[in-house]
Amino acid sequence: MDSLFIEDMSRIYIEHSMVIDNFVIKIGNQIKDSLCRVFSDGVQYQWKENDDKIVIPDASIMCNIRDRKNISFTGVPRFVMEVLPDSTEEYDRTEKMDIYRKAGVSEYWITDWRKKQVEIYMFDWKEDGTSYSYLFKKITEKNKEELQLVMFPDLKITFEELFNIG
């Protein structure tokens, strides 16, 4: 029984990582000649809007890599993607989304490899200066041709490329 649990966890981990890698490799090849960089999980951000706590997104696009404090970026990425595992789905949809909104991230993808779905959230500002998030578009197999980075319209990744997990 324990070995089945370990196998299930490793399968989830591998597919989770494959989606992140697919995004980073495909977008990284297109962005390499710009001032922006795409990063995978392991790159950390530290913002005063989050009481200087460390946040580590699964993937991010950062255009000012000079904004650093030790090993953490202090600048705000324009794009962040989280790939959902069961264990952090609630956190990614609530607290983490709120952290990204407060920090000033413009575009946030919640990617679910099990459902093969991408929820594209945008963060914007009200007239009174408060920020808010809204679901811009949900991408599934039915509308997969609409998958597009909103903040980086020249960068392309297809639905099949993102979810190429074998």
CATH superfamily placement: tt1808, chain A
Major sheet: size, sense and barrel closure? 6 strands, mixed
Outline the low-pLDDT stretches: 1-11
What distance lies between the first and last C-alpha atoms, to the nearest angstrom? 26 Å
**Share of β-strand residues:** 25-35%
Summed over residues and divided by their number, the pLDDT gives a mean of: 89
CATH architecture: Alpha-Beta Complex
Give the helices and strands as they follow along the chain: HEEEEEEEHHEEEH
Number of domains: 1
Spatial order of strands in the largest sheet: 1-4-7-8-9-10
CATH topology label: tt1808, chain A
Q: Give me the secondary-structure category.
A: alpha+beta
Q: What is the quaternary state of this protein?
A: single chain
Percent helix among the residues?
25-40%
* Rg over alpha carbons: 16 Å
How many DSSP E strands? 10
Q: What is the general shape?
A: globular
Overview features:
166 residues, alpha+beta, six-stranded mixed sheet, four-stranded mixed sheet, 4 helices, 10 strands, globular, disordered N terminus
